Amino acid sequence: MVAEGELLWEPSEEVVERARLTRYLEWLGRREESYEDVWRWSVDQPAAFWTSIWDYFDVIGERGGGPVLSGTMPEARWFAESSLNYAENALRGAEGTALVFVSEDGARQELSRAELREEVARVRAGLLRLGVQRGDRVAGYLPNIPQALIAFLATASLGAIWSAGSPDFGVPSIVDRFKQIAPKVLIAVDGYHYNGKSYDRSAAVNEIAAELPSLRATVWIPYLAAADEGRAPQQAEPTPAHTQEMPHGEVIGWEGLRAELGPLEFERVPFDHPLWILYSSGTTGLPKPIVHGHGGVVLEHLKSLAFHQDLGEGDVFFWYTTTGWMMWNYLIGALLVGATPVLYDGSATHPSPAALWRIADSEDVTYFGVGAPYIMASLKSGVRPSGLERLRGVGSTGSPLPPEGFAWVAAELPGIPIGSFSGGTDVCTGFVGATMLHPIRAGIIPCRSLGAKVESYDPAGKPVVGEVGELVLTQPMPSMPVMFWNDPGGERYTESYFDVYPGVWRHGDWIKINEDGSCVIYGRSDSTLNRGGVRMGTSEFYRVVERFEAIADSLVIDTGQLGQEGRLLLYVTLAEGAELTESLERELCAALREELSPRHVPNEIRVVPGIPRTLSGKKLEVPVRKILLGTPVEEAANPDAMANPEVLQHFRPRP
After folding, report:
1. Do 186 and 208 meet the contact criterion of CB atoms below 8 Å apart?
2. What is the DSSP secondary-structure string of 513-581?
3. What are the Cα distances from residue 136, in Å, to 182, 183, 345?
4. DSSP 3-state assignment of 422?
């Protein structure tokens, strides 16, 4: 065990001097102030702070003379008279490498800024020929390949609205998403590669298109076929089988879409004009279609990537993600700050658990980001990252990173800070995280992000320090949703975030904020362990259990209900070759009793073949709890929104 709060890294004077945040503070005239003082200014004077971000980064657009911020949550509005376009800001400049693409099978592609601009211009012209106009929706059923980024930028340049799903999503899951937004064009691949295998999705695309009567056209990218023929995807045309079965609109290939070079122009739109539609996980009920605006994303990603990831021109940015997770939208934001995103399509652990670290080395990555489970898997697998000569920072998100994960990075990558970030799809960013000015302590998130007024509320709705409470935002952020799609009165949006504390955003996580502004996230507040009145987030439990080498993964569920004590059930997936012996059970219970409390010793430990997770890797605690309380398995979670739906049957209540 590593003590929470143990100092692992401190920035040198050289690191502080070259940090992009330092340059901004000098520009502001606040270099001598503490970070916490500057953060306080950024949330107490939001109009001044966000205006400074627009000015400091020289955002392309018309700022206008209207108020920077008007109204209060959930009706707050930013830069009311401004106009801009995300794509125009992302594609500024025509020199240097725009993106690098790497696939699991070793294929590699690189596009310069000039080449990217030309490809976007070509696809923009193709979308215009298909009738796409401002406000229309373009949907992508695509892996993390260059065509996804090109299609998104072309869509955004027109003032049309982008939405994407990864091809590992099942048909019902994609239909649940895209049917809500009625896309005019669907851009899809014939399949994808993962873990050394190829998956043909041609039939799935046909099924999806059949459910979307709004389609005017389907654009095929023969990703698998082209790879088999040793050609780039844009050089293959759709086969007759593709074209014959499409029930709505015309069918063309990617080469047909990009066939003509048109002018690269940008439709400047209001600050809150829809840029893209993301979705909640959709494990229960229809996924919420979350709409973000051009302006809010531009300002938030400029601020976050430059000051919290320390990215700028000449940097190379990698984050392991699919197009179905908001981290893809964050990754491609590297273009806004002049950095190069590395797009990767494939498994994180094929052909070995060190696969992503090897990409970071071969591509000279300067900032490397993954989900917390990958860091813990690297620790358990004995991975020893090597090379990484240009690496300056490591990021972790998706779930709380235990102190042991922090310590492993510090030991294996001495001198490289590990920053844990937390935020979400709802705001498409992290609102607590790290900077190059903060020391790194095991298990601790160093700071609240600039412009994000994160607080911890007790049950009475009062802010607390040094205590675990509900994570809330008490001031608006520009990247908050401008709306949910098909929610004209805003009722669904209000119910999602403002039903507990009117006018205050409740995020649904447990957080403890320390006196110095650092914090710890303890997991979802709707999956709390409440044992004998002692409330605890599940992350503390997993930290104890998953340090045992025999335990590959785990899930803990408290079946207690209001006024009624329930059972505490621990589900474990065992490492290869391991067994749940009486000795291991005793050791587990002893560790939980000593490090948490006697109340947190499970009533029963059960072995299961896998822990249910969403497609973005989050543990499905709430659906499993519902199953244990009597909800039928088929009603508790949408299998098409899960990475491994087959394991749910192992969580049925026992007689």
Report:
1. yes
2. E-TTS-EEEEEEGGG-EEETTEEE-HHHHHHHHTTSTTEEEEEEEE--BTTB---EEEEEEEPTT----
3. 9, 7, 28
4. strand
pLDDT at 309 over 90: yes
Alpha-carbon distance values, 254 to 99, 163, 182, 226, 416 (Å): 19, 18, 21, 12, 41
Per-residue pLDDT, 20:
98
Q: Determine the Cα–Cα distance for residues 429 and 329; give it in Å rounded to an integer.
A: 9
Partners of 607 in beta bridges: 572
Q: Across-strand partners of 468?
A: 512
**What is the tens place of the pLDDT at every residue in 233-290?**
555 555 545 555 566 789 999 999 999 999 999 999 999 999 999 998 755 667 899 9
Q: pLDDT tens-digit profile of 119-133?
A: 999 999 999 999 999
| Mean pLDDT to the nearest integer, 316-334 | 96
CA distance 339 to 337: 6
Strand ranges inside 116-262, DSSP E? 137-141, 161-165, 185-189, 191-194, 197-200, 217-221, 250-253
Q: Which residues pair with 555 in a beta bridge?
A: 571
> Cβ distance 176 to 209 under 8 Å?
no
73 three-class SS: coil
What local confidence, expressed as pLDDT, does residue 564 receive?
Answer: 63
pLDDT in the model for residue 519: 96
> Which of 130, 142, 125 lies closest to 216, judged by CA?
130
Rounded to 5°, the CA angle 341-344-349 comes to 135
Instruction: Determine if the pTM surpasses 0.85.
Output: yes
**Which residue, 448, 423, 445, is CA-closest to 326?**
423
The pLDDT assigned to 224 comes to 86
- Sign of the dihedral through C-alpha 436, 438, 444, 448: negative
Per the CB < 8 A criterion, the answer to whether 348 and 327 are in contact is: no
